[in-house]
Amino acid sequence: MRSAPLPLPPLTRLLAAVALAIALSLLAGCGYGKNRPIAADAAGPPARGPKLSVDTVRIGYLPNITHATALIGLERGFFARELKGTAVAPRTFGSGPTAIEALNAGSVDIAWTGPSPAINGFLRSGGDALRIVAGSASGGVRLVVNPDRIRSLNEVKGKRIATPQVGNTQDVAFLHWAASRGWKIDPATGRGDVSLVRSDNRVTVDAYRSGSLDGAWVPEPTASMLVAEGARVLLDEADLWPGRRFTTTNVIVSPTFLAKHRDVVDAVVRASVAATTWMAAHPREARTAAGAHLERLTGKALPAAVLDAAWQGVTFTNDPLPPTLRAQARHAARLHLLASDDLTGIYDLGPLNRALRSAGLPPVEE
């Protein structure tokens, strides 16, 4: 039997973390990707053909390069071709935990999200909240710092470092890395040997520019945007993993939606596999398409040099890399962020393996 999740931290500690994040956001001006309604054309081509078992499928994702499979699936019409007469209603989120909240609330059906929110959502629900049905990306996460303030890994101690949100994938990765160096940080408040600032990626660049941050452990394109502001890469998270491969983004689905509308889930996963195959064969066109979609979402184009640098740091893969997901769960449990690291039942790779066989590609295993 899966262990019961730990109780949430005391309200006062959570309020301190929230207040810190709000204070930082107030420092920001017009950060990349500030909240905007999704442009009508961001949903991709209109639905055509016979409907599947729902009129509309609601897909969530983040405006990150690590979610480029979703960006390109929409931008290049991969979802529309597989879903035929079923329309796509896209929704973007600032971080993975908010995407999990939306999945739990029933406001999205399928989402691209990082491993830590998926792990936490699965365990806290006793395994009822979600299933991982495909992989999407590996890598694309870096620790970037102000070179005038931090010149070595040891000098990160005592500084102000941003992660996207309490409990998100990069937040847990930074806490685990800091703990491996013997540093103490309160996971709830971010206080300790490092001042951990939970900052939405959409405001982190402005906060760094203002001098409020000394660095950030963030996904692409935020890492490369900070480098364009004068930061330098101090550590690539891929260097901490065997073979430099670790899951960054997975495709998750509500189990209820999966049970009732497996045809729709199969279609979305087929589209994801097709997008990944096309991206590998057309890397320059793929970068351009991802950049165009991000500009549509945010109203602001990424400079070509930033887009190129961000793209080079990510490996796009259909494989959800289950051993690395389990390792991340163990990391969180050792930090006492989880009471258990038992992920039995988190995967349903049937849709992925059907899509891979259809495309003439080898299946993946848990």
TrEMBL record:
Keyword Membrane attached: yes
Origin superkingdom: Bacteria
Main location as per UniProt: membrane
Family: Belongs to the bacterial solute-binding protein SsuA/TauA family.
A Pfam family of this chain: NMT1_2
NCBIfam families: SsuA_fam
InterPro entries membership: ABC_SsuA_sub-bd, NrtA/CpmA_ABC-bd_dom
Claim: Cell membrane is one of the keywords in the record: yes
Keywords: Cell inner membrane, Cell membrane, Membrane, Signal, Transport
Annotated compartments: Cell inner membrane; Periplasm
Transmembrane segments: none
Protein name: NitT/TauT family transport system substrate-binding protein
UniProt lineage: Bacteria, Bacillati, Actinomycetota, Actinomycetes, Kitasatosporales
Family matches, as CDD domains: PBP2_NrtA_CpmA_like
